[in-house]
Design goal:
The complex is a heterodimer of chains A (248) and B (283).
Chain A lengths: L1 E10 L2 E11 L3 E6 L6 H9 L6 E6 L2 E2 L7 E4 L13 H6 L3 H4 L7 H13 L15 H14 L4 E5 L7 H16 L3 E5 L12 E6 L1 E6 L1 H4 L2 H8 L18
Parallel strand pairs in A: 3-8, 3-9, 6-7, 7-8
Antiparallel strand pairs in A: 1-2, 1-4, 4-5, 9-10
Helix pairs in contact in A: 4-5, 5-6
Chain B lengths: L1 H5 L5 H26 L3 H10 L1 H10 L3 H22 L4 H22 L6 H6 L7 H20 L1 H9 L1 H6 L4 H23 L4 H13 L5 H26 L3 H19 L8 H6 L4
Helix pairs in contact in B: 2-3, 2-8, 2-11, 2-12, 2-13, 3-5, 3-6, 3-12, 4-5, 4-6, 5-6, 5-11, 8-11, 11-12, 12-13, 12-14, 13-14
Classes of the chains: A alpha/beta (248), B mainly alpha (283).
The complex binds adenosine-5'-triphosphate and magnesium ion.
């Protein structure tokens, strides 16, 4: 179980997160939603210890997560990567084994077969020798998904995996999320989805600087909660779902 | 033709210069690749200029010049990193400022301390100045750096490709950064003798950038870059010998010549060749 307790993050005088507490349970698919600038990426980075935390703590199975980073797989937001970097898809996935292989060693046969099977699971084995810039956005996302899989982590943090991908990649992502969930992994997915697709989550976290709601999708996505997160000018649309004023 | 190639080798200084040139021709592109992929090529230029005060002070105190140069090279990169962390100032502005300030300090110290350093030689490189002791110094620096890069290659690859991911995975990113900066600084100091402060960035960045047009993985960029670096520095030195040019400019222009060739004729990205490639699949 991942326990986040009273987490606050301050960037040069402005609060990005205030007193966020939450728990993630193994075998649960949790969605993290909120408007742009709500602090979703910041929350994921704070959990990973990548931004200075003002107060609060993060425990994984009772031990600070900082001390067991190898157990977390992190899939960054697309914009964080330089796609012109001279590296092939396979080498990106191989990075999952960097820390577990250890200093001064080459990845062993086991690590290489893990990489191969991860590429297979995201249907990218045949393109694994391409430079990453020669892949489509969805294929690039799958490479990073494979990297997370090859790491054999217990906790998975995804920053906007559904942005800019097609149906095929989405189906692969969803299938793998389901597999990971049934294998008892803990999953947190930050997303800009809206409407029916939110029903795929076991639980939703609605964030805007503070954690505004935490529960199953139906109870979280009430008009009241949404207006508190996104502002008053949101109107329920005719089909009963709330529409976002602008898409990101 | 053969005598054209062999004649210069009758001189000891030319033999020294060529051996040193081959060593830095290998070392510079390997190290420079890490700068290019991080979009920090200009940092090489900044460090090269920022080591000048170190050279002058070391020469004045009569200590090993590598030591003085290294201290100032590392100082400049730390100040740039510090300015960036502490303020909104962007990295390019911070680099430009440090570059000019350290260089100005170096030139001023040269006058104030009245050292017998030859500014012209430092700035543009001089094959006549290469001594047997320089070969030793360069060999040791090159061997140590290349060995360290081999040992830490997979960590450096991860770090330079995805800093946040590397940190999330638990790699000591600060240590990797400092190690890289140290390697770059030492490489520049080694290259300076032949290519000079102003143009050493050409060997650091040029051959590796050329290689970038030809290959799709970092280790190939380094290998091909090293090959091109050796060609450029040897060819450059012959040009320097026969046309009586300073070695720095001769090498830098050769580097650029190779780059232009790759830009035009690279199989996948060449301006003249890629269009032919695009037609192929229609058959
Ligand atoms: N490195 C930083 N320095 C200063 N402020 C930052 C930094 N990163 C984020 N912020 C600020 O913190 C707040 C939260 O940002 P964050 O990136 O976590 O939002 P987000 O929910 O991920 O948004 P998006 O949906 O656009 O990805 C924003 O107001 C942002 O301006
Ligand atoms: Mg974000």
């Amino acid at each position: 179980m991942l326990e986040v307790e009273y987490l606050s993050v301050n960037y040069r005088g402005t609060w990005a997160l205030e007193d966020v507490s939450l728990r993630l349970i193994p075998g649960e698919l949790v969605g993290l939603i909120g408007p742009n600038g709500a602090g979703k990426s910041t929350l994921i980075k704070a959990i990973l210890g990548l931004v200075p935390v003002h107060s609060g703590r993060v425990l994984f199975e009772g031990i600070p997560l900082q001390h067991q980073r190898q157990r977390v797989a992190y899939v960054p937001q697309r914009s964080q990567i330089d796609w012109d970097y001279p590296i092939t898809a396979k080498s990106v996935v191989m990075m999952a084994c960097t820390v577990s292989t250890g200093w001064f060693r080459k990845p062993d046969r086991q690590a290489r077969s893990r990489v191969r099977s991860a590429l297979e699971r995201v249907e990218m084995l045949n393109l694994s020798h391409r430079q990453i810039g020669e892949l489509s956005a969805g294929q690039q996302q799958r490479v990073f998904l494979a990297r997370a899989l090859a790491q054999q982590a217990d906790l998975f943090l995804f920053d906007e995996p559904f942005t800019g991908i097609d149906k095929k990649t989405e189906a692969i992502l969803l299938r793998l999320f389901a597999e990971l969930r049934s294998n008892g992994k803990t999953l947190l997915i930050c997303s800009h989805e809206w409407g029916n697709s939110l029903d795929r989550y076991d639980r939703l976290l609605l964030l805007n600087q503070r954690l505004l709601a935490n529960g199953d999708p139906k109870t979280v996505m009430t008009l009241d909660n949404i207006q508190r997160a996104y502002g008053e000018n949101l109107q329920p649309s005719t089909n009963g779902h709330v529409e976002m004023p602008f898409f990101c | 033709m053969l005598s054209w190639l062999l004649d210069p080798l009758n001189y000891e200084f030319m033999r020294n210069a060529i051996v040193t040139g081959i060593l830095i021709g290998i070392l510079c592109p390997v190290v420079g690749s890490f700068l290019i992929v991080q979009r920090m090529a200009i940092l090489g230029d900044v460090i090269a200029h920022a080591i000048l005060p170190g050279l002058v002070i070391a020469n004045f105190l009569g200590i090993e010049i590598i030591l003085g140069a290294f201290v100032f090279g590392m100082l400049s990169t730390s100040i740039i990193a510090w300015i960036r962390a502490q303020s909104r100032v962007k990295i390019d502005a911070a680099m430009a400022l440090i570059f000019a300030s350290f260089f100005a300090l170096g030139v001023s110290l040269m006058t104030v301390l009245d050292t017998r350093l030859d500014l012209h030689e430092i700035l543009l490189g001089d094959i006549l100045s290469v001594r047997a002791s320089d070969i030793w110094r360069t060999s040791i620096v090159a061997l140590v750096i290349l060995l360290l890069i081999m040992l830490f290659y997979k960590e450096l690859l991860f770090y330079t490709f995805d800093k946040i991911g590397a940190e999330a995975a638990g790699l000591p990113v600060n240590a990797l950064h400092v190690g890289l900066m140290a390697g770059i600084t030492l490489t520049l100091i080694a290259g300076m003798k032949i290519v000079g402060v102003i143009l050493v960035v050409s060997l650091l960045v040029g051959p590796a950038t050329t290689a970038y047009l030809l290959v799709k993985e970092l280790h190939w960029m380094m290998a091909v870059g090293a090959g091109l670096g050796v060609i450029a520095s040897v060819v450059g030195m012959y040009i320097s010998y026969y046309l009586d040019l300073p070695s720095g400019p001769a090498i830098a222009l050769t580097v650029f010549g190779l780059f232009v060739l790759a830009l035009l004729f690279s199989p996948s990205q060449g301006i003249l060749t890629r269009s032919r490639f695009m037609k192929l699949p229609k058959h």
